[in-house]
């Protein structure tokens, strides 16, 4: 029987968090093959796209198409477009003109190549096109970096437009990482050319945050080493409401937790490697506490691959080296940590599961902050 306090905690999280569940439209149900492929996308558009991203693209592209129709706009600017998979679907399946901008120059030639491949097979494979849609590639693939403090004039220049042009476009961002999502919202508010926005953020831990006394040491390290941090504008919090809250700050650890999904963790628990990773890390913390009690927890993130192939002793030695600590630990200390902690892996999994239950709440706070920011500037979301 669950304790009443745990039941109350669970209900409070469910009540306060935004609903993360997604129910596809009726016409999209049954569109998944046994291999996970999204059959709603034509085969030529699915090439080079992983199944998970196929589902994201098909649903987001449909939403963007509906959004552009509602504001009478036929041009979409896809920020952080990568190899142009979303823009390609918008262009070929929905007939929208698309401009993409991507910081990594290596993606531009691939995006153009994939456009041409889809164009060649579009006459044979895209069956959903109607007379008012086009099969002529109308995508411009640009290379450029969108800084958090970019001005409207600079932004339009990156898009090879000028402020005097009467051009309207919608902003789109799939997996707009870190501060990029916040930057898109700021551009939507500030740029009169932008008539709508559809953004799906990710990597909340990479957002810049307002410096306050309660910052963890790890936050300071990451902010100092970031490519660009504006001292007056931050990725979080955006809204004045949260900026004025005394407890509105989210640590790096909290923001990192916000990107997790309990269902994915449940599936990964079926892997012995994940359980081993949890157990090893918990036992290692015992060692660190004994050999370096003043070390700030969370200042350095440890990642390992193929843990099933190494012993705890090997893991501890490599981890301590990464942390800059003496890897030569007395055997009795390692043995004690191994014997006392590794068998208690169920407690570690239980604790992490409780911690993970807060993820929807943290993400909800970030999303509500963005909605409040838009509302403060007279925009709906």
From TrEMBL:
Protein name: Methyltransferase domain-containing protein
Signal keyword on record: yes
Record keywords, A-Z: Signal
Signal peptide: 1-17
Keyword Nucleus: no
InterPro entries reported for this sequence: Methyltranfer_dom, METTL25, SAM-dependent_MTases_sf
Record organism: Capitella teleta
Pfam families: Methyltransf_32
Domain Methyltransferase intervals: 52-210
